[in-house]
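Comment thread on ticket #2218

A.B. wrote:
> Attaching the input chain for the structure job we discussed in standup.
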Amino acid sequence: MPSDARFRTDRRGERSMSTVIDMEPSVRIVVLSAGVSDPSSTRLLADRIAVRVGDGLAAEDVTAMTTVVELAPLAVDIARAVVTRLRSEQLEAAIDALSQADAVIAATPVYKAGISGLFKSFVDLLDEDVMIAKPTILAATAESTRHAMVVDDQLRPLFAFMRALSVPTSVFAAPEDWGSTALGSRIERAATELVQLVISRVGHRMADAAWRHYRHRFGGSASRAEKSSADVDFDTDLMRLATGGSAHQVG
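C.D. wrote:
> Ran it. Output below, let me know if you need it in another format.
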């Protein structure tokens, strides 16, 4: 199940994380972690990024709530949904949290030069509209630096297909990176990029302006999914053809 926490930075620069039950957040950040060990280096990396994002938003006087979606406890539900397309309540809750997010931190372990099968299977279940223009940080962990390019070779094209707004800087951590200043610098740069995308609301504006021009394929979990005929845009070539009209001719 997703868990909610708000990252706060006080005036002395001290960070804390507390459960949120009292108010709606102004910005909703979802951490999507496919780590399976306990403790999970993937989750630790995602949390470290989330803290920096929270600090950056706080510096801009923006309050954020961070919801953590851990995929390991959902592994059986994900496998069953891949085969049957039937989703458990817990899996639906995780997908709903993602669809409502203002920004995402997606982190996966790397195995044998590839992203986690658990992570990919979860993404395979997502409606294609869920990630449209959503600011996203891509992150991965592995036991060797030989896997360092997997983030940009595999995660970035995957989220490009989902039409997410991935930040330019990806974050990768092998065991030897954890004590290095270079990892901290990458995290800081990626967090800064995400914060600027979030506060500019460029993702929201982009989706608002271009929504009708996307090819929409969803089953209802996208935040803008049609709920009734009143929500359907009939003024598109596809809908005109479906209702017996003719599509605009393109010269």
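A.B. wrote:
> Thanks. Noting for the ticket: Residues 181-200 form the longest helix (20 residues).
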